[in-house]
Amino acid sequence: MGDLTFYTVTYNVATRSPRQPLEDLLQWNGRTEQQLPDFCLFGFQEIKAQPQNLLLDSLFDDPWTAALRDILSDYHYVKIRTVKMVGLLLNVFCKRRHVSLLKEMQTSETRTGLLGLWGNKGAVSFSFKIYGATICCVNCHFAAHEEYLKHRIDDYHTIINNQYFGSSRKTILNHDFVFWFGDLNFRLDSSKLKSAEEIACHVNNVNLSLRTAKTLTEIWAQDELSSVMQKSKAFKGFFEQLPMFPPTYRYVFGSSSYDLKRRPAWTDRILYKNVDSSNEKYVLEVLSYKYIDSIQLSDHRPVYSESSVQIYTEGHFNNVDQPVIFQPINTWQLETENEVNLQIREYIPWVNDWIGVFKEKFTSLDDYVSYVYLPSETIECEESNDEYRRFDNMTSVCRVKFVPEIFSDGSKRVCLKFSETSVLNPGTYRLIYFSSTNNSVLGISNPFIATKQTCALNTSQEFGW
């Protein structure tokens, strides 16, 4: 058995940029590296989405992603995926040691704004598999305004019915675990506390340090989302820890006071679903659920939750075989071809499998220095053929040769020669093998140092002898 911990944040940023430091988004309170979560999920809504921003964000990280990477790189996290749709942004990070185990990484998106034509509302999702468990992360923004409760319910069903992942057409609810978060925009009904002033007064009628569970529970009884879930109108089978924090909307910008033009409500939520809760192999536990009052860039407050996923596996939790194993790379000479050996077992490379060259301390799976393709027909060539095959692509040239060597476990050796343009600058690098069929990481090389080849001087020429 092993545990994976998840740190999930949702924040409607109201088109603001990350002007103040974002360290407060990480409520880790001086933990040791071993105590930090394995995965970090960040869902943002209402990211600035003007045409010039969309163009720049397609070429570079948007300001929120860049700010998160700067902070999390110090904790040795790697960004494994960014999914963006107009104002919706989902970022998924994991500890570096988990990168080699990421399988079947797929994304999906659904537009629900303006009759499905505009992506200011809807959801972006990321699906992946690790240690045999499938996980889906959904960041959403539902219809606003109190009178549109039915629209919010419809948004949920539209997303559920329209999102698929990969060639298997897996749905959101086909995963072992679902993390669903975002600005769901559910409000409070008007059964008891009718006005914004009444709600705000009830929230603030006692000192925050003395606020009792009963105080918030009385308001919570009017929460639309919890009522919808109880009646199975939406989010059937999902669960949420009772939020023992004040409503997260709507605040005066830069203040802890409510803007009474809108009735306060818990619009920002984090829900979970353990699809087969009867399966003792996969267990999800929510450890905490809080808001962050110190970040006041928006009229919303960020909400975060920590959870633990228990995965029961055969054997040791970290003892997971890799189908592609890089043999140790001892030297890499710049300005010349370099040879790399792979051990491939129980896997037939597909057309357009590719190997990325990364700096050793890479902070994103998008940050490859160069890449080469490894077409499948190179593995199927005759064992007597010792000739390298040459394949060109956009960034470099790779020559591949089947080597007639079979290891004791039945795996085969493949020899690759990377061109002199694969690595141009001295430094420490890694190679990562990606499957093209399901976007899985199948192997990571050891770090290796790329250096310029030194040539011995002819002393007789040097001194003119």
Key descriptive features of the protein:
6-stranded mixed beta sheet; elongated; about 15% helix; about 475 residues; disordered C terminus; mainly beta
Question: What do these coordinates show?
Answer:
It contains 7 helices and 22 strands. The termini are far apart. Helices cover 13% and strands 35% of the residues. A 6-stranded mixed β-sheet has the order 3-4-2-1-11-10, with helices on one face. Strands 13, 15, 16, 20, 21 and 22 form a 6-stranded mixed β-sheet that branches. Strand 5 and strand 6 form a beta hairpin. It is mostly beta strands and 465 residues long. The longest helix is centred in the middle third of the chain and has 14 residues, at 149-162.
Order of the strands making up the biggest sheet: 3-4-2-1-11-10
Low-confidence stretches: 206-210, 315-319, 377-386, 457-465
Mean pLDDT: 86
Question: How many beta strands in the DSSP annotation?
Answer: 22
Helix share bin: 10-25%
Q: Could you provide a short overview of the structure?
A:
By secondary structure, the chain is mainly β.
Topology:
Layout: E1 2-12, E2 39-45, H1 51-59, H2 63-73, E3 77-85, E4 88-95, E5 103-113, E6 118-130, E7 133-141, H3 149-162, E8 177-183, H4 196-203, H5 213-220, H6 224-230, E9 268-274, E10 282-291, E11 303-311, E12 324-326, E13 332-333, E14 338-344, E15 353-359, E16 368-374, E17 389-392, E18 397-406, E19 412-418, E20 427-434, E21 441-444, E22 448-451, H7 459-462
Parallel strand pairs: 1-2, 7-8, 13-22
Antiparallel strand pairs: 1-11, 2-4, 3-4, 5-6, 6-7, 8-9, 10-11, 12-14, 14-19, 15-16, 15-20, 17-18, 18-19, 20-21, 20-22
